[in-house]
Amino acid sequence: MKLVVLSGKGGVGKSMLTSALAMLFAETKRIVAVDCDADAPNLAIWLGGIKKWDRTLPVIASAKPEINQQKCDLCGLCVKNCRFESLSINNQQLTINNFLCEGCGACEVICPQKAIKLKPVQNGQIKIKKTKHGFILVSGNLFPGETGSGKVITEIKKKAEKFKHEIILIDSAPGTGCPVIAALQDANFAILITEPTPSAFSDLKRVLKVVNHFKLSWGLVINKWDINSQLSDKIEKWAGRKFLGKPSTTFPKGMVLGKISYDKKIFKAISNLIPILETNLEAKREIKRIYSNLNSYIRKNS
Ligand code: SF4
Ligand code: SF4
Question: How crowded is residue 237: how many other Cβ atoms within 10 Å of its Cβ?
Fold first, then answer.
């Protein structure tokens, strides 16, 4: 079973929740935790930090043009047609700005002299660690200035699937772009997390559209619910009214899995690299209740 933790907005508690759920699942099941936020992976930190990874593997999932200056007659056709303005002619030479290039390949196709060829490049890496909590963590990152975060995520997931598991628990990137879509491919259940702020609520609705595209059942967690209990109630009712009461084939079932209170001590714990489950905070008990609700759902549906 593949479970994906998503939020729409960043910074609402995705990695905190994923890390705690991973540790709870690992008590009874063989799990693999996967950090699919290739632009800012931080699941390892929430698990207590990792000093040395067991393995680091290259990801070659992007391509950049290589220019044959001998063949190029400086006609400028590729410069005119590069939508990302990554090509220019300076001092009688065609040059490329790799930070702007998206590797789309238009220049290769358009060049009448066949002076451009796309060459594969390493755009990221995968990191693997057997954590002190007894499960494998597969993480990875996109290199600065590189493109293809969705492709890097796909490679990270492929690697994670090679390890024996009953559950793969994925910490997705925020937003609704390629990395999120790649994280949701082949998923069985989405765990949405939000906080009671207008921007987080708005982003939650946006990411739910992506979840609905994949026709996935989902559960909602409201983090820091008590910073705005009125909006929190509204989000809960919205989730319940919209999906709980009326399960249909268009919108698969949703449920409220639970709420987590705001507590400054959570930040203190993480800055000391102490996982939430190793604290005595209220958040730990609340996450255990969320886990228990999630587990009941899994038992009924697997
Ligand atoms: S289209 Fe080809 S020949 Fe023309 S400038 Fe570009 S690389 Fe050179
Ligand atoms: S691959 Fe695409 S983005 Fe990169 S230089 Fe060529 S046309 Fe521009």
Answer: 12
